[in-house]
Structure formats: structure tokens, C-alpha cells
Amino acid sequence: MRSLSIFGVTGSIGEQTVDLICRAGGAQAFRTVALTGGRNIARLAEIARLLRAEIAVCADPADLPALREALAASGTEAAAGPQAIAEAADRPADWVMSAIVGAAGLVPGLRALAHGRTLALANKESLVTAGQLLMATAAAQGARILPVDSEHSAIFQALAGEDIAAVERIILTASGGALRDWPLEALARATVAEALAHPNWAMGQRITIDSASMFNKALEVIETREYFGIDPDRIEVIVHPESIIHSMVGFADGAIMAHMGSPDMRHPIGYALNWPARAPLPVARLDLAQLATLTFRAPDLTRYPALRLCREVVRIHGLAGAAFNAAKEVALDRFLAGGIGFMDMAGVVETALDRLSAGESLGKAATALEDVLAMDHLARTRAAEAAAMIGKTG
Ligand SMILES: NC(=O)c1ccc[n+]([C@@H]2O[C@H](COP(=O)([O-])OP(=O)(O)OC[C@H]3O[C@@H](n4cnc5c(N)ncnc54)[C@H](OP(=O)(O)O)[C@@H]3O)[C@@H](O)[C@H]2O)c1
């Protein structure tokens, strides 16, 4: 029986993973080792009972008594805190889903790779923050990282059986997010609720806002560079409002392989779960005649400054990704809390990066976890300072 663990099981990706596992036989077909959640204790315990998990871990030690109570007489062990989440990744499992949101997902994913596990990676922030370390750890242990981001899963599938040396360019598609058709001058006043109204994808709150600002696509440019090892100048972004083509690979002979499908994350999750096989998935089939038209437009860098900022990050490489992601997380927190406006998020990140590149070692290789975590911490401080300044003047 295959064994698996899911980090971030109570989130959007986590729940869709559970859905596929239940459809494939649940506890009769898979042995569930570890499940982790954040604050949603009731749901974590419910899934742990459903899949008969060995251990369930929540993020905050203050929630441990509630988790213990919810798991009473279930046979599932309870634990809490970042250290316990990291230790859950030490437990042997054939397949590990990394679906915690944000930089908190880095350490458990890294620990799973250090044990040679197959890692289904939804947590793009790990690759952005510590891509060099993650890829080197996977290579050293013979561990496989299977991309779960829909774009990277699409590229991975388009590259099957191909020589990476024959790749001329990778074209990441972007929906443009909830505000893509707003007049530019109105963006500064966009509210959280308006930025959350994504036209195509149902996702967690943070990634949905990041889609509207294109910080999500900026992270994906960095992720593409780290995962596929391609020259960043060969990575393009195109706005494709229908979200039917999930990304494309252009080859030396001019051919372009495009991956198409309905916008449903159970496709890339299921692909990673069944890889290298393909199994039937409960996703809507495309009706091409009904779709009729697919459209594309070049992204406007004034509307999406995050796409401009990420180019400098991939040029510097090293710890710049850790700084970019951490500053972005702080800016997003401030926007969600009402402290800064929608367009101020890019201002916060740019100011933090400018200050860091003036004095600190952004270009140092991201090969040691301590360096990555130190840069993450420093960038959060710089971004908080920048957000406080913008909040006062805005
Ligand atoms: N959703 C998508 O369609 C999609 C697509 C591509 C990539 N991704 C990536 O997949 C990851 C997950 O996204 P999501 O949309 O599923 O996020 P989400 O719905 O917000 O879920 C995040 C998960 O992480 C847990 N969590 C939050 N903070 C934590 C912390 N400090 N320590 C431990 N656990 C914590 C949450 O727990 P609680 O809910 O219990 O608090 C939840 O289980 C992100 O990296 C995202 O960029 C998502």
C-alpha cells in the first residue's frame, strides 16, 4: 500500500488532494502518515479520522489541547508547532504533498527531500526562496520533485521525452487576475474583496490576491528558472484571460507545445499523485467548439510592476528570491490588514529590495538554510519599515 503525507491539508490544495485520495479509495488504498494544518483544528481532525492518519500536527502549540480533544479515541497522534511540523516530514512516506502557504512550507519540504522522498510541490515559495538548496538536496538524495503549480506541471508534461537543450523559450500564461480589465488609475483603490474575485480559478486567499497583482506570476518566473534551470531571458509571460492553456514550451525548431485543460487544480495534483502513469481524473473536459476563441495579450508592466521586479531578482539570483518572497509576504499582510493600498505592495517590495541590494549580500548563493532564513528575516524587517513609511504617507 502506498504511503503519503500532506502538509497544509486544510487549505485549497490540501482539500483537493484529499478529494482525489478519497475518490481513489481513501484509507483502503493509501496509508496516511502525517497530516498538517494551520489554525483549522476541526477540519484537520476530521480529515485525520477520515484517512486514519498516524499523526496530525497543527501550527500553533496553543491549539494542541483542542486538537487532542478532537482526535480522542481516533488512534491518531496529535502534535503542534513548527518543529513538530518539520519532524512530521522525517516520518517515512512514499509521496509527500507540500501545500503549506508561504515560506513556512520550506523546511518540511526540504526535510522530506533530505530523506529522498518524492515531493509534490505546490508551495512555490520554497523554490523561490531556496531553489538552489532544494534542487541540490533532491539531486544529492535522488529525490524527485513533481511540480504542482499548474504552469510548471504543464511545462513538465510538455517536456516529457524532450531534451532541455532544445528548449528555446518557456511561455508562462497568466489569467491577469481579478482586476485585469480595471482602468489603471482605479487600481490604487482596489479593495481586498475586489482583488479576491478571481475570474477562473478557486484558490486560497493569498495566492488569489497575488494573481491580481501578478506577484504570483513573478514568483513563477523565479520558480521556472530554479526548477528547469533555464536562462531567465528565455522565460516569457503572456496574459491569457481564458486560463485554458496552462503554459507552453517553445523548441529550437519553432514548434510550441501547449498544455490545455479546464482550470481545475485537481489536474496537476492528480498528475503528480499518479505520475508516471495517467489515471482518470474528475475534471471537466474541454468543449473546444464551445470555447471557440483563445486570446493572448502582452502584460503591461505599469499595471503589473511585480513582473518588472522579478527580472532583477532572477538576474541577481542567490538570496534575492528569499528577499523578494519575504518582502512580498509582508506587503500582502499589510494590504490584507488595510494598512496599504493594492499598488503599494509593489512599492514596499521594491523599496525593501533597493535597501537590501545597497548593503547586504543578495547575490550570495542560496545553498545554506541559515543564510536563506537570515535573508528572509532581514527582508521582512526592511519590508515592514517600507510599509510603515508608505502607510504614513499614503
Ligand atoms: N490554491 C491553488 O489553486 C494553488 C495553485 C498553485 C499553487 N498553489 C500554492 O500552494 C500552496 C498552498 O496554497 P493554497 O491556496 O492551498 O493555500 P491555503 O488555502 O491558504 O492553505 C494553506 C495551508 O497552509 C496552512 N498554513 C498556513 N499558515 C501556516 C503556517 N504558518 N504553518 C503551517 N501551516 C500553515 C493552512 O492551514 P489552516 O487553513 O488550517 O490555517 C492550510 O492548510 C501555496 O504555496 C500556493 O502558492 C496554490
**How much helical structure, as a percent, in the residues?**
40-55%
- Give the H and E element order: EHEHEHEHEHEHEHEHHHEEEHHHHHH
Computed over alpha carbons, the radius of gyration is 20 Å
Basic shape? globular
Give the DSSP E fraction (strand runs of 2 or more residues): 5-15%
Which cofactor or ligand species appear?
A: NADP nicotinamide-adenine-dinucleotide phosphate
Total helical elements: 16
Uncertain regions: pLDDT < 50 for 5+ in a row?
none
Oligomeric assembly: single chain
What structural class do the secondary elements suggest? alpha/beta
- Per DSSP E runs of 2 or more residues, the count of β-strands stands at 11
Structure, described:
- The protein is of the alpha/beta class and 394 residues long.
- Helix content is 46%, strand content 14%.
- It contains 16 helices and 11 strands.
- Strand 5 (95-98), helix 5 and strand 6 (118-121) form a beta-alpha-beta unit.
- Helix 6 runs parallel beside helix 10 (215-228).
- Residues 8-14, 37-40, 59, 85, 99-101, 104, 122-125, 149, 201, 203-207, 265 line the site of NADP nicotinamide-adenine-dinucleotide phosphate.
